[in-house]
Write a structure and sequence with these properties.
Blueprint lengths: L14 H8 L25 E4 L4 E4 L6
Antiparallel strand pairs: 1-2
Length: 65
């Protein structure tokens, strides 16, 4: 696959599902993330999970909860 850019909102939880999809590995999924390269923006709007050891946030592109 050639180098490219993902324009949809995603975060670190999407790394593992995206990498495994690029490797064509089949696996039972327990990930919170999704394949960032195959996401249909209309079906699953972008979001980013942001956190440290004390706080957790969910960013949807305009609001942080």
């Amino acid at each position: 696959m050639p180098a490219g850019r993902v324009e949809e909102l995603c975060s670190q939880v999407d790394y593992a599902p995206t990498l495994l999809a690029l490797l064509n590995w089949s696996y039972p999924s327990r990930f919170f993330g999704v394949n960032a390269l195959a996401t249909d923006p209309a079906a699953a709007p972008g979001r980013a999970l942001i956190g440290n050891y004390q706080k957790l946030g969910l960013f949807d592109g305009s609001k942080l909860a």
